[in-house]
Design brief:
120 residues; alpha/beta; 4-stranded parallel beta sheet; 3 helices; 32% strand; globular
């Protein structure tokens, strides 16, 4: 069985080139190690969409979660077998510590922007 890994890259913008190039690589499932995922945020979308999505995919492994408070990250991710991080945690469990982990390959940022961010 093979798994397709899709990678989008944004090349240097030139008017004669497309904004995005698309590459498709096929990797044998038996040699692929699951990617370590961290979720930043403990709101409803993080808990009801991102967490179950990561847990359902055998190519991903939820390894850590972060929220501003220990209470919120424990409520959202306490039932998972992941390391919990927060601003009010003891030393070694801050956001900087989470981002420095070698086993975190990707981070899902599940925070609402308030006020909305203007792109123009």
């Amino acid at each position: 069985m093979h798994v397709s890994l899709y990678i989008w890259t944004a090349p240097d913008f030139l008017p004669s080139r497309p904004l995005y190039d698309f590459h498709n690589f096929t990797i044998p499932r038996e040699i692929m190690t699951p990617l370590g995922i961290a979720i930043l945020g403990s709101g409803i979308f993080a808990v009801e969409q991102h967490k179950p999505g990561v847990e359902a995919c055998d190519l991903l492994k939820l390894v850590a979660a972060y929220s501003r408070s220990t209470a919120s990250v424990t409520k959202a991710f306490g039932d998972s077998n992941v390391d919990l991080y927060s601003d009010d945690s003891d030393a070694g469990k801050t956001l900087d510590d989470l981002l420095a982990r070698k086993d975190v390959d990707a981070v899902i940022i599940a925070y609402a922007s308030s006020p909305p961010i203007s792109l123009w």
